[in-house]
Amino acid sequence: MHEQAALVDPLEPNSHDGHEHKKEEPEDWRLLTALAAGCFGFGIFGFIGEWVGWSEWVTIPLFLLAYVCGGYDAAIDSFETIREKRLDVHFLMLSVAVGAALVGAWHEGALLLFLFSASGAMEAFAMHRTRREIDALLQGAPKFARVVEGENVREVDVDALQPGMVVRVTDGEAVPADVQITRGESACDESNLSGEAMPVSKSMGAIAYSGTINVGGVFEGRVLRPASESALQKVIGLIRNAQAMKAPSQRFSDRFGGAYTVVVLGLCAAMFFVWWLIFGLPPIFDAGEERSAFYRSMTLLVVMSPCALVLSVPSSILSAIATGARRGVLFRGGGPVEMLAAVDVVALDKTGTLTTGDLRLTEMQVMVGDGNSARMIALSLAILSEHPLSRAIRKESVAWSIQPQTIEAVQSVPGKGIEGTWKGSRVILGSRRMIPEALRERMPPPSVLPSTSAEVWVAGSGVLACLKFSDELRPSARDVLSALHREGVRTVMLTGDRAEAAQAMQTASGIHEFRAGLLPEEKLSAIQELKANGSHRVAMVGDGVNDAPCLAAADVGVAMGVRGSDAALEQADIILMNDKLESFLFAQKLSRAARKVIHQNIVISLGTVILMATSAFLFPIPLGIGVFAHEGSTVLVVLNALRLLSVRV
């Protein structure tokens, strides 16, 4: 089981590197534990038999049974890798066990296979623990939905749901797809998505996410997107990718492992001839107290086998990913787990990141036309965008009793807004800069909005209006920034808002510095400047479409929750699923703990190999001591990695 600790997707039968591997069943660790126990039991009886003088016709069958139990899993894995013309540590261990039997050291070979199989069972148990969170997500995926059609309600398969359908969710049911509540009030348990234990209240206009549990009443909601594109499926897809993506340290150990195995086999073969032909040791069998060249070669082979090194990184990464998922932090692979610990500059978006993003329409000013026409244009364009202001408009629209219209030739203008054509006329939802010159003379001069407020303009044929929204600074923002500052991290706000609003936000939040009035390409340039040719490690925290380029360019991209835009989620390395800024601090703490454990494991594994290999060259150390040192270091790195499962906020 040792090399299969590489991050293999638990939801797919094939590993990331294209090689076929058996799909580990949830109870696989129990089978391996039983085999290890069988190896121990038969080995103990065989050892006792040797000690009290039983016949070899009794002790050798006992040892053979111990060999079968202890070497079963390793033999299967070795057979698969040999078919692929590769050698791995399983082959090394079996070679040593067979060699020990050939020189009559049956009990030492049995001890080797017991410790090897026991560490494999422990590794499988660690994998089982890390996968429980993922299994919970899959089991929570709903299968059926109740579709409301006038006075009738019919049950359909979740896969048949289409945007615009109205579904009914009763108390205790899983929400079948991402829906916007149009009738009723309730609360949803979102712990499977966000790790948040307390149910979240849901009222008219709120979004209820697929796979969450309705725990407060009955509500109806309009389906926003197919079930295959729901928040739950996005998280499952992100975890699939995360399990397949390797950390830098792990890629190194993988490349190192294959070549190292060949080198060790060659070195042990060479040392057999050196000890035999040059130092004059007996070739195969011991001569009294003098160990044979073959025995010493087998000991050298044991102590130089890289089992602990192969396990040192992936076991740590898997434990960190599982701990993060349980706490509402999704690492998309091992790279971000290691990289976040090195970040010394954090750039943050304003709306939806430093602020709650829960925008409320506070004022509507109509300069041209009527309010209903402005609302219709705003809603028709807002349903085509995932910008926080668009989401706020959709939420407010529940009380408008207005049907959206089909907009043609839709085009998103990054950093400005969205536009299209309706009945042959251009319609716009966006910033002041998007409004045509012909209408600008009807616009009042720009006003200085509070730092937690925003405005969006609506324009069309005979229509010009301004919608003003209010937002609030996240309650935890100042504390989170203060904690980062204490760690020596520089914080920078990147926003498209005016300098006056950004200045007010800096005063309210305590952020080190800000850059205001930025278009997406200017935000991207700011990230590249902050990286300063590699002298700094930069994390970008955002949630909108316009943040996606920055998330991709930063050393670590962090997206705010599954509520964030698809573009942001696709580009992010880390997802704060509970949409809490303080989760970034936990992610950083977990990353630092994981990096520390990885370094400890590498030191333990390589240190043991160097120490024991040097001893094996200089002295005829007993094979049993080599076995204990080798397998002990393997068990130790797995136990050390499991400590990450207990990291707390």
The biggest beta sheet reads: 7 strands, mixed
Which structural class fits the helix and strand makeup? alpha+beta
Any idea what the radius of gyration is? 31 Å
Give the fraction of residues assigned to helices.
Answer: 40-55%
Per DSSP E runs of 2 or more residues, the count of β-strands stands at 22
Outline, from the CA principal axes?
A: elongated
Question: Which regions are unreliable across 5 or more consecutive residues at pLDDT < 50?
Answer: 1-27, 242-247
Structure, explained:
- This protein is an alpha+beta fold and 649 residues long.
- Residues 1-27 and 242-247 have low confidence and may be disordered.
- The protein is built from 21 helices and 22 strands.
- α7 (248-278) runs antiparallel to α8 (293-304).
- A hairpin with a 2-residue loop joins β14 and β15 (425-430).
- Strands 10-22-21-20-11-18-19 form a seven-stranded mixed sheet, sandwiched between helices. It has a six-stranded antiparallel sheet with strand order 2-1-3-9-4-7, with no helix packed on it.
Concise structural overview:
It contains 21 helices and 22 strands. The protein is α+β, with helices and mostly antiparallel strands and 649 residues long.
Notable characteristics:
22 strands; disordered N terminus; alpha+beta
